[in-house]
Amino acid sequence: MSSISLSSEFTMPRRRQTDRRGPVRWIYSYALRYWYLVISMLIGAVSNAALAAVVPILIGQAFNAINQPVPDQSVLLPIALAIVGTQILRGVLQFVRNFSAELIGQRIERDIRDELYVSLLGKSMTFHSLQPVGDTMARATNDVREINFLFSPGLNLVIGSAMFMLMR
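RESULT FIELD:
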């Protein structure tokens, strides 16, 4: 792990260390700070897929009740209410999943941008005179923004799709 040199003019208060042994470990060290959001995203993905799988089962039960020699219509209202209830709960949990993924992406983007700024502030004036301004600005804006896209929609869609493949 690396740290800012003590001769740096600017430092960030309460700066946390990140694992820079590779890009995956580096991003993982940032994501680990928001473990509770990762867990809520996973819970939302699992429940979203599970509750989507409940609908065909309930419709099958309703179809079987109506398809009897003597149709049993008394089960239709509870089944319909169960479908409505599960899908409202599914919508809430899907919102939790999407919200968690977006919040993780935003927070990690902010943290990485802070790390970049502190690193740039600690560089010598010779470094800045040799480095093209456009490249530095591209790193500070577009490249850091891509980390946000990694989590939302990227990882969010991958996890959601994997849960649907497992549940179906």
